[in-house]
Write a structure and sequence with these properties.
The complex is a heterotetramer.
Chain A lengths: L3 E2 L2 H10 L5 E7 L6 E6 L30 E5 L1 H12 L8 E5 L28 H4 L11 E2 L14 H8 L2 H14 L5 H5 L24 H14 L9 H5 L6 H16 L27
Parallel strand pairs in A: 1-6, 2-4, 4-5, 5-6
Antiparallel strand pairs in A: 2-3
Helix pairs in contact in A: 4-9, 5-7
Chain C lengths: L26 E10 L6 E8 L2 H6 L7 E6 L3 E6 L10 E6 L5 H7 L6 E8 L12 E7 L4 H10 L11 E7 L8 H9 L4 E6 L9 E2 L2 H8 L6 E6 L2 H14 L6 E4 L15 E2 L2 E2 L6 E3 H6 L5
Parallel strand pairs in C: 7-8, 7-11, 8-9, 9-10, 11-12
Antiparallel strand pairs in C: 1-2, 1-6, 2-5, 3-4, 3-6, 12-15, 13-14
Helix pairs in contact in C: 5-6
Chain D lengths: L9 E6 L3 H10 L8 E6 L7 H9 L4 E6 L10 H19 L6 E5 L5 H18 L14 H8 L6
Parallel strand pairs in D: 1-2, 1-3, 3-4
Helix pairs in contact in D: 1-4
The chains are: A alpha/beta, B alpha/beta, C alpha/beta, D alpha/beta.
C-alpha cells in the first residue's frame, strides 16, 4: 500500500492539532534570499510557515537527539531517512514516538555554490546542485508515514564521488598533497561534527581533557587527527547525506573522504548504512572469513 | 596626503613588491572561498567583489595558534625561552569594517592593567592597507553601514586602496607607517584628476548611506534587562553550537591556553576558542555555569553588544556579516538585533 | 583595581624597550614544602620559593588575590594565595585534587624540589584599605578558606593587628578530618585578640568542638554589624543560607564581600571566559561586594 | 638517504597473551632481531584504539606495528576479530589519504612463534627504513626555532 500523499502544511496542522506529536521539525524560508532554515512548529496555526523546496539542505534528523522524550514529526528527505534508520538500529530513536513526513527530493542546492549576490531563484543555473545528490540512490523515502509529493524519478546514478575514484588511481604523494591541502583549510570549528546525526557522543574525544586525545592547534596534523578519527567513528554509519560537506564554512572536501569510507564498507563488509533496518552494523559483528591478507 | 593611481595589474604588482620585504596577508580565492592568506609565490591576489573575504585577517594579529613561549623539561627542572620577535607584516585589502574590527582587538589587548605583549608586538609591526569599495558592491549579508561604517571609510588605515569600479584604483597614503612602504609605492604615478574626482563622488555616496541606525548605547541598555528573557530560547533553537561564526568573526578574540609536548621539549600556545563549546566554562569540579545552548547563544550576543560597549566603549561587532554567511543553519544576527528591539520595555 | 603592574624577572628586557613584559611567562619557583591538609588527602598546601629572590619583591600581592600555578607540559590553574603578603620568603597555595583536574592531579603527584611556575598576582583581592578601624567578620566553609587564612595571618601580624578592631571568624567543614590548617586554627582559638568559632557538619572521632552548619553558627554567634566588614567565601550552598543570616544581623551588602571561582585561562582579562555579566572575575574580581553581585546576572 | 645514521623508531603494540609472549620467546631463544621497536603491552589487539596509531604518527614515529593473537586464539575470544575489521578500514583510509603503505602494519604472532616474531619485526623495520624518516602527518608546532634551540640547549638538564 503506497504511503499516503498529503500536503505538508495540512499534515503538520493535523498532527499538532490532534496531539499526535508535540513538535513538527521542518523547514521554513530563511531571512536571507535562496535559503531555507530548520523550523520547530508546536502551534497548529504556525503549520503554514513550513515549506519544502530545493534549498532545504540541512539534515533535520540531527535535532531528534534533543527531543528524545517528546513525540516528534520530522520532515525527511531520502538521505535523512537513512540517518533515522541508522539511529533506530543504534537504539537512539524510538520509532513509535516518530512520525516521518517523507519528502521526495530531486536534489538540493549546495549553498556554497550559490553566488553571494544572487537573489532570484531563476538566476541560478543547474550547476548549484550538491554534487552528492547526482549520486543519490534514495530520492524517494521508503519508510515514511506520509509523502508530501509525488515520487520523483530515480535515475541510474554513479555510486560515489568521482574525486574518490581519481585519487585512488594516483600516487600516494599526490594523494597526500590533496589531503594535506584540504586539511590545511580546516579551522576546527566542528560544524561538520555538530550537524551530523551520527555524531552524538556526550563528551566527544575532542572535548576530553583527561586524557587529552587531541589538541586544537593550526598544525594540519590536528585537523587530520580529528577528521580521520571522526571518519573511523562513522564506519558503517555514514549515510553520505552530505550535511557535513555543506555545513563547512571553508569548503573542505569531506565528501571525497566520506565516499571513500562508504566505498570501503560496501566492498569489504557488503553493507550500506541506513538502507535495511534489520541489517547488523558492520563494526558490531564480524565473520571468520573477514579479509585477512593484509595481516602478516 | 599623497595619492597614487593604479590599474588592476598595478594592484597585483604592488602586492608582489610588498612581498619582497614584508610578509603580506591578502585575500586569495581557494575552492570558492575568499580567504585572507599569507601570499606565497604560487598564490595570486584575488580581491572579493564584496570586499569582505569569508575568512578574516584576524589570524594575522591573533593567529589560530600562537606560541607564547617554548620550554624544556628536565627530571624536576624546567626552562623557558621566548619566541623570536614577529616579522614586519602588511595586511593588504582590508575592508573598512575589518579595520574597525582590528580596533576592537587593539582595545581588548592593550587594555590595562595587563597589556598583551605578544599581540602588541605583532600589531606594532603591522601595516594596514584598507580597501574601499563603491556602496553598491556591499554583500547582502553585511550591515556595517548600520553601525556607522562606510564602504569608503579610510579611518585607522595606514594606506587606503579605493576601487573606483571602473578597473582603476586610487591609493591614499595616510600615515608614517604608510610612508615607510614608499619604496614599493613611489614607482606608481600620482593620482589623476578625474580619478580623484570619481573617488570623491563614490566616497560621498558611500558615507551618505551610512545610517548608523543601530544605537549601541540603547542596545546595551536593552540587553542589560534581557538576561532572563525567553527570546534566547528561540535564538538558540536552530543553533548547533559549532565554532564557525566565532572563528570567522574578526572581533571574536577568546582563546584557550594549552601546552604542546614532544618528549622533553614543548611550547605553551594559545589557540582560538569559542564560548559555544562546553569546555569553555567547565570547572575542574565539573560545575559549568553555562550548560545549555540558550546561555551560550546569549553570551555571544551579550559579549558583542553589551559587555564590549560597557567595558571598552565600542561594540564588538562591525557588521561584516561573516556570521550570517557562514552559519550552517543560516541564523541571522540581524534578526536577533530586531528581536531585541521588539522586546517589550520591562 | 590592583595597582601593581605585572613584572617578571624572566624577561627583564621585553622584546623591545617600550613593550610591556610578556604576561604569560610565569615566575620560576620551586616546591619547598608540601603538607597534606585533610584526611581524604586530596587537599595539599604547596609552599613555593622563588628561584630568583628578587621575584618575591616583584610578586607583592594583597590578601584575596590569586595566581596561576603553572606546570610546564601540563598546564595552568588559578588558585587563591593562602600565605600572608607579609610572609617574606615564600608563597603558599592550597590545591584540591580533582579527578578531571589535569594540573591539580599533576601537582599532587609532584615532590618537594620540583620546579614549576607562578603567574600573577592576579585579581583585585579583599578591600584592605576599607578595613582600618573596622570590626572584621570572616566566614568560610570547606577548602575555600585559603584566601581567608591568608587574610587572618595578615591581620594578626603585629604591624597590622592594631589597625583593626576585633576579628570574628566562623569556619566550618564537613567533618573534623576536612578542617584545613587545623593546627593554626586551634592556635588562633587560644588567642584573645581574635574570636574563632570552628564547626563541623558531622562530628566524628575525638572532636569536642562545635557541631552544626555554618549558617546556624553565624546566627548563634551573631557578630555585630556595627562598623564591620564581612568577608565570606565558601560553597554556593553555604552562601545561599548564610547571606540571609548576615542581612538579619544587619550587615550592609556594601560591606559584605564574596570571592568567586570561575574557569580561567589567561587570568588577565583577555581570553573572555570568566565573565559574569560584563564583569571579568579575573580582573574586576574575584572579590565582589554583595551589592555588586545583586546586579550581576545569575550565571556562576 | 639524507642521514645515514638515522634509525627508524617503530612503536609496537603487542597483545599480552600471544605476541608479547612470542617476543619473550624470541628473546629467551636468543633470536636476533632489529632493536628499532618500542613495545607497548596491551591486553588485546582489540584494545588498540585507532587514536593511539594516529597520535604515534603525529608524534613523529616512523612506523607502527600492531600484533595480536591469531583469529580464534584470542584470550577474550573476539578481540582480534573486531580489531581486524577496524584495522582494515584504518589501513585503507590512511593509504587513501597518502600515508605511505608500510608505515602502519599488522600481524598475528602466537606465543610459540618466537622466530616469526623476529621475522615480522625485521620485515617491518626494513620496510620502514626503506620509506625513510616520517614526514607526513608529523606535528611541527613544537619544532624549536634555531635561536630558541640554542637558548634551551644548556638549560633544564644542566641544573
Amino acid at each position: 500500500m503506497p504511503t499516503e500523499q498529503v500536503n505538508l502544511n495540512e499534515i503538520a496542522r493535523r498532527l499538532l492539532a490532534d496531539g499526535t506529536v508535540d513538535v513538527v521539525i521542518g523547514y521554513t524560508t530563511g531571512s536571507q534570499p535562496l535559503v531555507a532554515v530548520p523550523a520547530f512548529v508546536r502551534d497548529p496555526q504556525d503549520a503554514d510557515t513550513l515549506v519544502f523546496n530545493r534549498f532545504c539542505e540541512q539534515n533535520l534528523v540531527n535535532y531528534l537527539h534533543r527531543f528524545k522524550a517528546k513525540r516528534v514529526a520530522v520532515v525527511v528527505k531520502g538521505c535523512d531517512e537513512r540517518s533515522v534508520i541508522g539511529l533506530i538500529q543504534e537504539k537512539q530513536l524510538d520509532r513509535q514516538k516518530l512520525v516521518l513526513i517523507g519528502a521526495p527530493c530531486a536534489g538540493i542546492v549546495d549553498p556554497r555554490l550559490v553566488p553571494e549576490d544572487a537573489t532570484e531563484e531563476e538566476t541560478l543555473g543547474d550547476d548549484v546542485m550538491y554534487a552528492g545528490c547526482a549520486a543519490c540512490a534514495v530520492r524517494n523515502p521508503r519508510f515514511a508515514d506520509y509523502l508530501i509529493g509525488a515520487p520523483v524519478p530515480q535515475p541510474e546514478a554513479p555510486e560515489f564521488s568521482d574525486t574518490t575514484a581519481e585519487l585512488e588511481d594516483v600516487e600516494s604523494d599526490e594523494r597526500w598533497r590533496y589531503f594535506s591541502r584540504e586539511m590545511r583549510k580546516c579551522i576546527l570549528c566542528f560544524a561538520c561534527r555538530n550537524v551530523c546525526p551520527a555524531c552524538y557522543c556526550n563528551v566527544c574525544f575532542t572535548e576530553s581533557s583527561q586524557p587529552k586525545w587531541m589538541s586544537k592547534t593550526d598544525d594540519e596534523s590536528d585537523a587530520m587527527f580529528f577528521h580521520l578519527t571522526r571518519l573511523l567513528h562513522l564506519t558503517g554509519r555514514c549515510t553520505g547525506c552530505g550535511a557535513c560537506a555543506r555545513a563547512c564554512p571553508v569548503n573542505v572536501d569531506l565528501r571525497t573522504y566520506n565516499d571513500r569510507l562508504r566505498k570501503d564498507v560496501k566492498d569489504v563488509f557488503e553493507f550500506e548504512a541506513g538502507l535495511d533496518p534489520e541489517a547488523r552494523a558492520p563494526m558490531t559483528c564480524f565473520r571468520d572469513n573477514d579479509k585477512n591478507e593484509f595481516i602478516k | 596626503m599623497r595619492t597614487k593611481s593604479l590599474s588592476r595589474d598595478d594592484v597585483q604588482a604592488l602586492a608582489d613588491a610588498l612581498m619582497r620585504r614584508h610578509r603580506v596577508m591578502a585575500p586569495v580565492l581557494q575552492d570558492g572561498v575568499y580567504r585572507f592568506e599569507w601570499l606565497r609565490d604560487d598564490t595570486t591576489l584575488a580581491l572579493p567583489p564584496g570586499g569582505i573575504p569569508k575568512v578574516s585577517m584576524k589570524s594575522a594579529l591573533l593567529p589560530r595558534t600562537e606560541v607564547l613561549f617554548y620550554y624544556k623539561l628536565g627530571k624536576n627542572t624546567e626552562a623557558t625561552a621566548q619566541p623570536p620577535a614577529p616579522a614586519a607584516q602588511v595586511l593588504f585589502g582590508v575592508h573598512p569594517c575589518d579595520v574597525q574590527a582590528i580596533k576592537v582587538l587593539d582595545a581588548v589587548f592593550s587594555a590595562e592593567p595587563y597589556p598583551d605583549a605578544p599581540y602588541l608586538a605583532r600589531r606594532e609591526v603591522t601595516t594596514v592597507i584598507g580597501l574601499g569599495l563603491p556602496r553598491d558592491r556591499t554583500p547582502q549579508t553585511a550591515f556595517f553601514e548600520r553601525l556607522g561604517i562606510g564602504s569608503m571609510d579610510s579611518r585607522d588605515c595606514d594606506l587606503f586602496l579605493a576601487d573606483l569600479n571602473n578597473g582603476r584604483f586610487v591609493l591614499e597614503i595616510l600615515t608614517d607607517k604608510g610612508e615607510a612602504l614608499a619604496d614599493a609605492i613611489d614607482s606608481l604615478p600620482d593620482a589623476s584628476e578625474d580619478d580623484l574626482a570619481r573617488l570623491a563622488e563614490l566616497r560621498s555616496d558611500a558615507s551618505a548611506h551610512v545610517t548608523a541606525d543601530i544605537d549601541i548605547a540603547d542596545l546595551k541598555e536593552r540587553l542589560s534587562k534581557l538576561f532572563e528573557a525567553d527570546m534566547w530560547q528561540e535564538v538558540a533553537e536552530r543553533c548547533i553550537a559549532c565554532g564557525a561564526c566565532s572563528y570567522l568573526c574578526p572581533t571574536c578574540h577568546c582563546f584557550d591556553i594549552q601546552d604542546e609536548n614532544h618528549g622533553n621539549v614543548g611550547c605553551r600556545v594559545r589557540n582560538w576558542d569559542t564560548c559555544q563549546f562546553d569546555l569553555f566554562t567547565k570547572h575542574a569540579s565539573g560545575h559549568n555555569p553555562r550548560t545549555n545552548q540558550q546561555q551560550r547563544a546569549r553570551q555571544r550576543i551579550m559579549h558583542k553588544y553589551e559587555y564590549g560597549y560597557a567595558n571598552f566603549g565600542i561594540p564588538f561587532c562591525t557588521g561584516c556579516g561573516r556570521c550570517v554567511l557562514s552559519c550552517p543553519m543560516h541564523s541571522d544576527i540581524r534578526n536577533v538585533l530586531e528581536q531585541i528591539q521588539e522586546q517589550p520595555e520591562p | 583595581m590592583c595597582s601593581n603592574r605585572y613584572r617578571n624577572s624572566l624577561n627583564p628586557e621585553p622584546l623591545n624597550p617600550h613593550m610591556p613584559p610578556n604576561p604569560y611567562i610565569p615566575y620560576p619557583v620551586t616546591i619547598d614544602k608540601i603538607t597534606v591538609e585533610n584526611d581524604a588527602r586530596d587537599l595539599r598546601t604547596f609552599r613555593l620559593v622563588f628561584r630568583n629572590p628578587a621575584d618575591r619583591a616583584a610578586f607583592d600581592f594583597r590578601i584575596g588575590q590569586f595566581a596561576e600555578l603553572s606546570l610546564l607540559g601540563v598546564g595552568e590553574a588559578p588558585i587563591g594565595i593562602a600565605s600572608s603578603p607579609l610572609d617574606e620568603d615564600y608563597i603558599e597555595f592550597t590545591v584540591k585534587r580533582y579527578p578531571t583536574g589535569i594540573v591539580s592531579t599533576a601537582l599532587h603527584q609532584s615532590e618537594v624540589g620540583r620546579q614549576m611556575g607562578v603567574r600573577g598576582p592576579l585579581g583585585n583581592g579583599y578591600p584592605v584599605e576599607r578595613m582600618a578601624g573596622k570590626n572584621i567578620v570572616i566566614i568560610s566553609g570547606g577548602f575555600a578558606v585559603t584566601t581567608l587564612r591568608s587574610t587572618i595571618r595578615y591581620l594578626l601580624h603585629p604591624t597590622v593587628r592594631p589597625t583593626v578592631n576585633d576579628i570574628t571568624v566562623v569556619y566550618g567543614a564537613r567533618s573534623p578530618g576536612e578542617l584545613c590548617y587545623k593546627s593554626e586554627f586551634l592556635e588562633w582559638q587560644e588567642r584573645d585578640d581574635i574570636d574563632v568559632h570552628l564547626t563541623v557538619d558531622k562530628s566524628e572521632g575525638d572532636w569536642q568542638g562545635r557541631e552544626g552548619f555554618v549558617p546556624s553558627v553565624v546566627s548563634e554567634v551573631a557578630p555585630s554589624a556595627e562598623n564591620a566588614i564581612c568577608l565570606i567565601c565558601g560553597p554556593p550552598i553555604m552562601l545561599k543560607f548564610t547571606i540571609p543570616v548576615l542581612r538579619e544581623v544587619g550587615f550592609d551588602p556594601e560591606d559584605t564581600y564574596l570571592s568567586f571561582e570561575m574557569r580561567m585561562k589567561c587570568g588577565i582579562g583577555k581570553c573572555g571566559r570568566c565573565n559574569i555579566g560584563d564583569r571579568y572575575v579575573c580582573v574586576h574580581g574575584p572579590v565582589f561586594s554583595l551589592a555588586e553581585t545583586t546586579e550581576l546576572p545569575r550565571e556562576y | 638517504m639524507s642521514d645515514p645514521t638515522w634509525e627508524p623508531k617503530i612503536l609496537a603494540f603487542l597483545c599480552n597473551w600471544c605476541s608479547y609472549a612470542g617476543a619473550d620467546l624470541a628473546g629467551v631463544s636468543r633470536i636476533q632481531y632489529p632493536p628499532n621497536i618500542r613495545v607497548v603491552r596491551v591486553p588485546c589487539s582489540g584494545r588498540v584504539n585507532p587514536m593511539f596509531i594516529l597520535r604515534a604518527l603525529q608524534q613523529g614515529l616512523d612506523g607502527v606495528l600492531v600484533s595480536g593473537c591469531h583469529p580464534g586464539d584470542c584470550h577474550y575470544l573476539t578481540g582480534n576479530y573486531f580489531a581486524r575489521r577496524r584495522f582494515l578500514v584504518l589501513k585503507r583510509l590512511l593509504e587513501f589519504c597518502g600515508i605511505e603503505e608500510g608505515r602502519v602494519q599488522f600481524s598475528w604472532v602466537s606465543a610459540s612463534e618466537g622466530q616469526k616474531f623476529a621475522d615480522v619485526v625485521t620485515e617491518v623495520t626494513e620496510k620502514v627504513r626503506e620509506l625513510g624518516p616520517a614526514t607526513r602527518m608529523v606535528k611541527k608546532t613544537w619544532k624549536l626555532p634555531p635561536e630558541v634551540e640554542a637558548q634551551l640547549r644548556g638549560a633544564a638538564d644542566a641544573d
